[in-house]
Amino acid sequence: MAQALLCMSHSPLLDHADPPAEVKTVVDEAFARAREFVEAFDPDLVVNFGPDHFNGFFYDLMPPFCIGYRAHGTGDYDSFAGDLDVPEGIAADLAQFVLDHGSDVAISRQMEVDHGAVQPMEILHGGDAAARPVLPIFVNSIARPFVPMSRVRAFGQTVGEFFKATDKRVLFLGSGGLSHDPPVPQFATATAPQREFLTSGRHPSSEARAARQARTIEVARRFAAGDADIMDLNPEWDRAFLDVCRSGRVEDFDGYTADEMDAVAGHSSHEVRTWVAAYSALSACGDYDVTYEFYRPIKEYIAGFAVTTALQAG
User: Are 88 and 69 in contact (CB under 8 A)?
Assistant: First the structure.
């Protein structure tokens, strides 16, 4: 089988929160299953659909999609801070194919990727996000305006069509979600200093980065204790989304709207756009079966936390 899929939640709080031992155990077991899946599939290339959290992409220029020809980790929350192993020729060919087939996409020759993209690679490869060749694809999942979900699906399917005839084993990786509402400023309600950060806040000082991260860690602590002014997790919404992933009817993703997602699943639930792109890419290669699914609402991580794997059917 030439294509497979792994989608998983991420959280910058994995090493900065203290969930009950039983929760940590089941999450570690899910990560172990993910590693076993990837090791058995042994991909030649990982196509990494990842979000960003105003570490690499800002409102000075915010594309809905961007393919990285080269990429470097930002190191936020002590995540991977080195160069990724990006096959530049394949990235360029993919970008041209996507543009030729109806989806507009930006390109970056010096993409910066944060924990949202590299954390799954670190989990899978003992902390080394550059252990395998990876093609990073940014999917805007945090900054309005958002493209309709139908365009995310179409973009993912076009990426899948590019890799459908490849002789390489390709793993489509989606990272983020599910329901969650961490303390990320919204431009419409942000203060003037916050708007300045959201527009051009790249490469902050170590002190500024530490202060930002400390605020998130403190909100997570209060949220787990039931004393934080952020939206609660929505396990019902999460499970309904996983049902669509499992069904193979990727066109059903089209019914998700940004306003409803904000209202019922939190402002960062848009990270599931990476999942939509990844599942749509796999679907373009043929029918698939979800082979593993883990889900748990985890307040300490401010996330409806899920891990899924899928292979082509037959």
Answer: yes
Strand 65-68 and strand 106-108: the pairing is: parallel
Catalytic one of 115, 125, 203, 270: 115
Digit-coded pLDDT (tens) for 159-207 = 999 999 888 999 999 999 999 998 888 999 999 999 999 999 999 998 9
Q: How far apart are CA 15 and CA 26, in angstroms?
A: 15
pLDDT number for residue 220: 84
Q: Which of 180, 203, 267, 270 is flagged as catalytic?
A: 180
What CATH number does the domain containing 284 carry? 3.40.830.10
Cis previous bond, 173, omega within 30: no
pTM exceeds 0.70, yes or no = yes
Domain that holds residue 50: 3-312
d(CA 273, CA 278): 9
DSSP string, 115-182: HHHHHHHHHHTTT-TTSS-EEEEEE--SSSSPPPHHHHHHHHHHHHHHHHT-SS-EEEEEE--SS---
DSSP letter for 203, please.
S
**pLDDT tens digits for range 71-122:** 999 998 889 999 999 999 999 999 999 999 999 999 999 999 999 999 999 9
Domains in the chain, number: 1
Mean pLDDT of 16-37: 94
DSSP for 273-301, written as a single string: HHHHHHHHHHHHTS-EEEEEEEEEEEGGG
Measured over the CA atoms of residue 128, residue 130, residue 134 and residue 137, the dihedral's sign is positive
Is 180 one of the annotated active-site residues of the chain? yes
296: β partners: 305
